[in-house]
Amino acid sequence: MPSATIHPVDLVHHQASGQLALRWSDGRQASLNSQALRRACRCAACEKLRRAGLGPTPSSAIRLTELSPIGELGL
């Protein structure tokens, strides 16, 4: 029998605090701010900056403005 895949079941963007709250299928919860999301970004542009030792640079000016699904695995 295959193991169950853990996936997000709820996402809430708290605009006032800049937090993204996630609830996972196994009951765990997480909260990430915009800077943490930026540091964790794995897009091609951010990976290129990392290889060059340049970033991405977290900034208090970075704010989450919208959520859009990208395929089955990303936002």
Task: Provide structural commentary.
There is one protein chain. The chain has 75 residues and is α+β, with helices and mostly antiparallel strands. Helices cover 20% and strands 24% of the residues. It has two helices and three strands. Strands 1-2-3 form a three-stranded antiparallel sheet. β1 and β2 form a beta hairpin. The radius of gyration is 14 Å and the shape is globular. The mean pLDDT is 84.
Secondary structure topology:
Elements (H helix, E strand, L loop, with lengths): L7 E7 L4 E6 L4 E5 H7 L3 H8 L24
Antiparallel strand pairs: 1-2, 2-3
Descriptive key words:
75 residues, alpha+beta, 3-stranded antiparallel β-sheet, 24% strand, globular
> What radius of gyration results from the CA coordinates?
14 Å
Main pleated sheet:
3 strands, antiparallel
Assembly annotation: single chain
Strand order of the largest sheet: 1-2-3
**Order of helices and strands, N to C?**
EEEHH
User: What's the total helix number?
Assistant: 2
> Would you report the number of β strands?
3
Low-confidence stretches: none
Strand content: 15-25%
**Spatial gap, N to C terminus:** 30 Å
Q: Provide mean pLDDT, rounded.
A: 84
Helix content: 10-25%
Shape: globular
Strand-pairing-aware structural class:
alpha+beta
Please sum up the structure shown.
This protein is α+β, with helices and mostly antiparallel strands. The protein has 2 helices and 3 strands; from the N terminus they run βββαα.
